[in-house]
Each structure stands twice: as structure tokens, then as C-alpha cells.
Amino acid sequence: MTIAINYFIDLRAYVRAALTLIFMALLSPAAIFAQVANMPAEPQTIVLPIGYDFALDVGLSAVFLAEQDEQLTLEQVRATGQWTPVNLALIDGSRAMSGGGSAAPYAMGKPTWVYFKIRNDMDAVRKIVLDTQRPDLRNMVIYSLNGVGETNLILDYNDQLRFGQRQVKQAQLAVELYIAPKAEMRLYLRYERTASEPMALKVFGSDAYYNKIRIDAIWTAIFLAFLGTIVLITLLGLPALGWRVGLSYVFYVSIVGLWYAGVTGHFFSLVIPDFPVIASRAVETFALLVFVAFLNMGRVLFRFKNINATYDKILIFIITANLLSAALILGNDIYTTPWLAYTVSILTAISSVLYVISAVIAVRAKLDGSVVILIGSLSLFVAFAVYRYITIAVNAGDLAVPIGRAILIPPISLIEISCFALAMIQAQIGIRKQRDQAKRAEFQAVQEQLRLNTALRSSEKSYQKARQQAVRRRERLSLVSHDILQPLISLRSMLGEIKQKDSAKAQDMQNAFDYLETLARDSLVATTSDGGNIPKTQCETFNLTAVTDNVFAMFREEAKDKGLDFEYQACDLQVFSNPVELMRILNNLVSNAIKHTNSGGVKLTCRAQDGVTHITVEDTGAGMSATQIKAYLKARQKSEASGGTGLGLYQVKTACETLGHKFKINSSPEKGTTASVLI
After folding, report:
1. pTM for the model
2. The CATH number of the domain where 176 resides is what?
């Protein structure tokens, strides 16, 4: 199967397949037509059975003669001995052509004479019906010759006669005959056909014939009603199916119905009974439009324009050529126009191949409904090939059972209609699935949007709550800062008494009071600024010892009281920072170092390297793990042994980020901690 699909997809294979089919369709008849030996002039007599419910094949007992270059008269026909045996149940003159060749399609054969005899052995007059089983013959003349040699013209029909002028008002051409008791009737029938398929001539008893007519009418009505129902249902479902696909399907089903009505003769008898020529040409027109319909149906259903634009243009070209040929058939006699007949044969062959190719391309593209259409296209292709083969074989005398279009149309059409319907349903199911997926995705997007909106509202509430808490904290900090300033001012006034007793200690206290008063005033300014935001830190260039000396002086007594060595290495360096904020940073680091060191000591050093000033605070305390460091750098995170607020390291990190300084901390449990500020 894979090899077959790849073969059809290859463009060269398309051309080879089309040319092969056309070659077989056009050249095979000439190769298989053969001459048939002459028979005695007298055919075998057809004896009518008892009763009126019988059907006899004339071809089983008839002989025929095809006219060559000149029209023969009845007298010439009766005198000739060049009769040819009819191929069993078939009447056809194409085999008796001069040289055994064939003419163009639809125009094969010359006017044909058929000679057969019917005998009535009963004692009553018998009424029979001679049925051509064809709705469209170019002309038919029937002469009867009784036992005493009297000749009567019992039918003179041509395709210019209106339907109402027929002897028997049925869709198929027929004539009623009456045979006298114990008499034999010789019948000479001359006709020209108007299609490539042979004609089967039958003699019916009157009851059998009219029963056949009723049954055929019932089945025809059922089939056409079925097609009409499909058209109505499709029209009602156009909004769901889509206008292009739905109308293409309606066009296909309608053309099939018109074609079948034309082949069975009902189109002529009911629609245009006064224009038999148009009715005859309409049959072939509808046949060609069927190919237009299913090619267009496949093109619209699978949207080849989006898949393969080049192939879509090929389909449009063939569809247009078929439409133009159909218009030409209505205006010209295809049976006497060889170039038009050849054109139509080539177009039908190419259309059949393209129909299969369209299905294969759709299968390879994994389109919904493509497998069903592939089955339908292969069925139609096989039916077309079988019909052509049977027609050729029957004309050549190699096959005795004809299969006319009236027999093939209903089953093949039902297969194609069902395949197209299933393909449309599968395509619609695929579209619905895509729509459902899109709707589900849209619904999920809406849900996600709602979730985000809910989260946003929750975040806004949390933000407003945190903002209110921050405002309250700033107000409290402002009050605390204001309250701290009052006792600081009072304590500063007492420094005069202490300075008289111990000027060194008084100076240390003076520095500490200056630092506390600066912190209190900065906090008070920050909490009363616009918007409650901390103003941008004011930096300046100053000597680093102005900060480190004060830090050392503030904590040396505390370290001494705890029994720790506090080493301080001053360095005379100029730095660009905020002295108050930098002093806060170092105070926090030194305070933490002393607090968490029970033995050993604390070291405060500074150095310059590559244009960067490193201020380092080292201790020999308990140390921290990496996990603890990561946690303590967050606000209000502290160890169980700490009695502080948990803001020390967090304030150091935040202050360094605000000042644009880098902060590093390295620590190991039981080995101590080293914290550095890089300016």
C-alpha cells in the first residue's frame, strides 16, 4: 500500500497513469475488434411461449447487417446474404465495419439492420412489445413481413419526434406488435444508436412489459426521491456543513440525479418532452458534469489550495475544460463530431485519475475523511474501467452480458454519495474537535485570568494592609525618635560635670551622644518626608578613621567587660559614603561579633586594594552555616541565643545596597565569622 501511494504521489507516475488509461480507452477497441464469419440469411425463429408473462432476448435468434457507404433499402436487405450473427443478446453494428476497425467514441458503427422472426403457435392473436431498452436512438424503422409477403411499416421514429409522438408512451423506446394466430412475422429493424454502449433488444409479453415498466418506475422514483431527500437535508444543514462544502455536495447529488433521469429517459419524457435532441445531448452533458462535481467536491472538501497550490490549479484547469466540453455537447452533436468525442473521452479518463490522486494526496496529508474518499475514488475508477472494458468486449463479441449506465449509476452513485457524506461528517467532527479545543483553551485562559485578577486583588489588599502598617510604624518611630531627643539633650548638659572629672571618658560619651542624636534626627526626618519614603542617602568624602575610631571607642569597654580582646587597626583612608549609615553598619557588625563570641576576640581592620577599601570585622565566636547566613540576611530572622530583633544583618545588607557598597560574610560553625564591607 505504501508503495502504491508513493507511486501516485510522484508526478511522473501521474502522467504515466493518465496516458496509459487514455491509450487503453482509445486504442483498445481497434485492437480487439474482429471480423465475424457470415451466417445463412435465415435466422432462427422465436416461438412465443404460452401466456403473456415472458421476456425473450431477440439477439439469441437474430442476425444483423451494418450499412457501409450507402443506405440500403428493404428490398436490398431482403436480397442480401451478408448477415452477421448477433452477439447473443446484443444488437450492434460496430463489429461488421469494413476492415474490422472502429470510428471515434460515441460514433462507433453504421446504421444497422436487424432481421428476426417471431411465430405465434396459439389460436389467438398475441400482443407483444418490442423493447429497445434505450431511451435515446437516433432513428428506428421497423418493417413487418407476414406469411404471404405483405410488408407493413409499423414504426418510423427519429430523434426529432416529440415524446408525445411515440407509439408507446414510456421512457424507453418500444413498439407494440400483434401477431395473428398460427402465423409467423418477419421483422426488419433499422436503427442508429447514440451512445457507445450496445443495445439489448427484447420481446416482452404485454403483462411482463408493463410489470417491468412499473417496477422500473418504482425503483427510479425511490432512487430519485432518495437523492432529493439528501439534497434537502444538505440544504437544511448548510450552516453546520459550511456553504462551500454543502453546496458542492448538493451540486454533485443533483447532477447524479439528472444524469440517471436522462439515462433512463425520464428527463426527456418529463422535463423536455418537446426537445428530444436536447434530451439526448443532455445525457452526455450530465455524464461529464458528474466528473466536474466530484473533482470540485474533493477540491473544496480538502482545500487543496492550502495544501498544494499547483495541484489545485491543475484541478481548476480540468474542471474548466470539462465545463467547456459540456457546453459544447449541448450545442453540437457529439456522435458526429469525432474531435469532441475524443476530447470528452480524454477528459473523463484524466478526471478519473485525478480523483484518485486527490484522495491519495489527502491521505498523505492525514486529512479527515481522506480514507473514505480514497475508497470511493478507487471504486469509481474500477467501475469506470470495468464499464469501458465491458463495452469494448461486448462490441468485439468477446462478452455476452451488457452492463448499461442505467444499471451502474445507482450502486456507484450510492457509494460515492455515502463516501462524500462520511467524509463531510468526519471533516465536521475534526472541525468541531478543533473548535472544542479552542474553546477549552479559551476557557482555561479565562480561568487563569480570573485567578490572576483574584491574586491581584489579594495582593492589592495585602499591599494596602502592609502600607497602613508601615505608616503606623513610621508614626511610632517618629514619636520614639522625638522622645529620645529630649533625654539626649538633657544628658548632653550633664557632660560638663563629667568632663571636669575625666575628660577622656567625657569625650567618648560626647561621641556616643552625637551618634544617637544624629540617628534620632535622621529617623524623624525620614518618617515625616513626602510619601513616607526614606530620602536618598546623602554621601560625602571623609576620612574613614572618623567612623572606625568612634566604633572602637563605643565597644572596647563592652568587649573588655566580657573578657574579649578587641583589636583595632586604624587606616588613614578617604572614602565616599554616608558617615552615619556607615557607622550604623559597623556598629551592627561589631555588636553582633561581641554578642556571639564567648572566648577569643574581635578584630576591626581596614585596608585598600585595587582602589577598593575593605572594612573587615572578624570574631572567634560560634559561627554560622550557609543556611543560617541565608536566613539571617532576611528581616526578623535570628538565632535562639540572640536577644535582639533579628534586624542586624538585614539592616547591614540593606544599608550597603542603598549606599552602593558590597557586603560579604563568611562563617563556619565553631570557627567564627568574617564580615566585610567593600567601598
Report:
1. 0.57
2. 2.60.40.2380
